[in-house]
Amino acid sequence: MTNSILKMRLLIQLFVLLFSSVNNGHRLGSSMKPIHYDLLLLPIISGGSPRLCGHVLVDLEPTMTTNVVTFHGVEISILDVSIEQVLDTEKKINSDRSVQLEDLCFSGLFEIVNEAHTVIHEDVERQQISVILKQTLIKGHRYRVGLFYVAKVRDDNRGFFRANYKNDNTSCCHEGWFGGTQMEATNARRVLPCLDEPGFKTTFDVTIGHNRVMSALSNMPEIATRPMKNTREWMWTIFSRSPPMPTYLLAMFVTDYDKVERIYKVCKRTIRMRFWGRRDQLRHLEQSMAVVPDMLNYMETYVRQPFSLPKIDFISAPLELDFEAMENWGLVLFRENRLNFNEETGSEDERFQVVQTMAHELAHQFFGNLVTSDWWSDIWFNEGFCGVFENDLVQHALPNLVFRAEMSKFSSIRTAMKIEEHVHAASVIRAVETADDAEKMFDSITYSKGSGLLLMLRNSVGPQNFRNAVVTYMERYQFQNANSQRFMDILDEEIHKNRDIGRGMNVTKIMHSWTSQQSYPIVRCIRTGNGRVRLSQTPHPVRNNITSDETTNQLWWIPISMTDGNQPDFTQQGTYPRVWLTPERPSLEIPYFPTDSGHDSTNDEDDNWILINGEFSGYVRVLYDDYNWRLISRQLVVNHTVIPQVTRAQLIDDAFTLALGEYLEYKVVLELIEYLTSVSDEFVRATTQFHLKWMRERAKQNESLLTLFEEYTGRLKFERMDDEHPNEYNNLVRTDGFEGEGCSSWSDGVCVDQILGMFRAEMDGTITAANKKYDFTKLC
Ligand SMILES: *[C@@H]1O[C@H](CO)[C@@H](O)[C@H](O)[C@H]1NC(C)=O
Ligand SMILES: *[C@@H]1O[C@H](CO)[C@@H](O)[C@H](O)[C@H]1NC(C)=O
Ligand SMILES: *[C@@H]1O[C@H](CO)[C@@H](O)[C@H](O)[C@H]1NC(C)=O
Ligand SMILES: *[C@@H]1O[C@H](CO)[C@@H](O)[C@H](O)[C@H]1NC(C)=O
Ligand SMILES: *[C@@H]1O[C@H](CO)[C@@H](O)[C@H](O)[C@H]1NC(C)=O
């Protein structure tokens, strides 16, 4: 014993020397290409000593001759290593390994029989385990490395986790255990030694050992069961082989849940759908079950690819997950409140969240699962696409939830903008090296800005070109890896078939300006007389960062759509870009009615508002001249429905934000919300309240200021408070409303600007508790 340890130390030193010269980063090198995993997993989830025992056979092809195989692995102990050259890929795998695994996990007895390695070296920081083999692996040959190992069953939701749950006492007084996996982003390495990077897509054979009273689930359908040798109460469930997929989509669950089963049938294909839950939850699965077939059908039709697997399971976990749902291919995991909906007690917002989450995860079955991003730095593209499809799918499956879908998309994109305004955020595409970097990618910038940028892109190239590119992309890269650049290349090909649109447009160049830079542009739109308007771009500065001048030179490719009060058009036509502001031409002057619209522009100049970026067609905010703001305010008072609700909310959100940044006087903002004193405009009201509450929150530091503010806001009557949207946008403030306060008009206030100027100063920190010297009465 002692002897071998000493020998090992020497070898490790030698190894570290040799190895560090070829591997400096956290990513695995390209010296091994994984082809296939055959995983035998035995999780013991109940009781006081949970454990995870496994044996994995990894088929690998070395791309260089070597005797080192490096896997990812965290808290994994490898007990034995075998190696053989694979000559016949169909060769049957010896089933003795399952008996050996039973012995190991149940009685702790384990006999080392292979010992094909000399040293196992763990690099904890890089989360890598290297096996140095006695045998040399020849480049181009195929090998099967077998590893017996023990890993952890966890109580959080990373890797293989367990949870204890109780059924409703009226049904059975039953207490159960639930075990399952969460691999994304980098937790597969806590469940098995593997090459845990999304660029490695391989097939998987999975066999799970479990108690007979439990069901085992994995991505693929179960094809056989086999009793265990050691104990009659346990068995092995064997699953069919998966298509190529990344390790982060591998999923395994062991549960004694009940299920409801449905068949999704389209043409000659049938897909088995199972919805799993605790017994007393099964009746709350109706809403999810109702929308899946429509949504799946919409996705299949849109991307022109069938769903790839013969089944799909939906399961919720009886513990608080860090995420809402996970799109594991064929086995989607949810928080309980995202899969179950109680028809009797649930609110419409809750129903929407269930439907929206389902939409997102079903979109992932294609974006992410069928075609996978080749590295985490580009994950915005997967998540952004699913964000885009959330709305389309909700609209398709439950048209009466469209209002909520629009509102949710609006809030989510505005959340991303708010974050970019307040903190030094990050660009959508950013460098990812470590596991920690990868986990951090799953933020609002990735999800919300990501989908905002793709919506802008779809709008700029037209939905038909966009869809054609999606179809080609899916066709070309299915079962493989790709990235946003591949998609932009295809889209470029697509639009250049159509010379009208394609001329001078380069999607790669356009999108690069959005994905590689943080923050967003403010578009100024100023009338210059004679029916002309000057458009220019300026970056929104990051607040709370006086030292940053990095943003001042930023320029974007900005699609500018325009409409006006004479012929308001918020359809696809009306929100299609009329001109582009570019880095080479960051400002330009154009007539504000298109030359073919038949306007005598000079006559219309005075009393028609113009509006750009209608229906949120670009990821920008717009600053008009005061006169145009006033025309828009007048329109809202006369008939606000001429401007659609998302655009109304956008105008008000832009105006408040620009006033805070001192681009605009508050007086103008208050005129803009004047119409809310006479109409109930729920959605816009919620946006307005957000800003007013935020201002009030800041004013609380000074009581007399607060009194004055409340005198003003108190006159604006808010009959309905709508605080039920716990997203980040609202979480930026502590929400407590000012219910029950009424008002008739805002515009009579002469010192509105002075008051609000004070708020602004408070918010900026220009006035601190120590240096507040203003005499408020004098200011008015
Ligand atoms: C179930 O629990 C509730 C509240 O804890 C209790 O009132 C009820 O009597 C229980 N029912 C049964 C059948 O035990
Ligand atoms: C301020 O900006 C600089 C770069 O311009 C950045 O490195 C820094 O993290 C920012 N600080 C904050 C507090 O956001
Ligand atoms: C678009 O721009 C990129 C980068 O500027 C360039 O490499 C590419 O060739 C351009 N594509 C077309 C179709 O002009
Ligand atoms: C308000 O505008 C909408 C949309 O243009 C129109 O359908 C409606 O009739 C107008 N209402 C009034 C009172 O003019
Ligand atoms: C609050 O603001 C008012 C008006 O500007 C000022 O007179 C007063 O001193 C301030 N109070 C505190 C506690 O700073």
What characteristics describe this protein?
binds 2-acetamido-2-deoxy-beta-D-glucopyranose, five-stranded mixed sheet, single chain, 780 residues, Neutral Protease, domain 2, protease, 5 domains, alpha+beta, signal, 29 strands
What this model shows, in words?
By secondary structure, the chain is of the alpha+beta class. The protein folds into 5 domains: 2-254, Sandwich (Immunoglobulin-like); 257-366, Neutral Protease, domain 2; 403-514, Orthogonal Bundle (Neutral Protease, domain 2); 519-659, Immunoglobulin-like (Sandwich), CATH 2.60.40; 673-780, no CATH class. It has 22 helices and 29 strands. A 7-stranded mixed β-sheet has the order 4-7-2-1-10-13-12, covered by helices on one side. The chain has a 5-stranded mixed β-sheet with strand order 15-16-17-19-18. Helix 16 (645-660) packs parallel to helix 18. The radius of gyration is 30 Å and the shape is elongated. Residues 1-22, 718-751 and 767-780 have low confidence and may be disordered. Residues 33-249 form the Aminopeptidase N-like N-terminal domain. Its EC number is 3.4.11.-. Pfam families: ERAP1_C (PF11838), Peptidase_M1 (PF01433), Peptidase_M1_N (PF17900). Its main location: membrane. Residues 289-514 form the Peptidase M1 membrane alanine aminopeptidase domain.
Low-confidence stretches: 1-22, 718-751, 767-780
Please give the number of β-strands. 29
User: At the third CATH level, what is the topology name of the largest domain?
Assistant: Immunoglobulin-like
Helix content: 25-40%
Please count the helical segments: 22
Strand line-up across the major sheet:
4-7-2-1-10-13-12
Level-1 CATH class name of the largest domain: Mainly Beta
Number of domains: 5
Q: Approximately what portion of the residues adopt beta-strand conformation? A: 15-25%
CATH superfamily of the largest domain: tricorn interacting facor f3 domain
Structural class: alpha+beta
Shape, per Cα inertia axes: elongated
Q: Give the mean pLDDT.
A: 84
Major pleated sheet: 7 strands, mixed
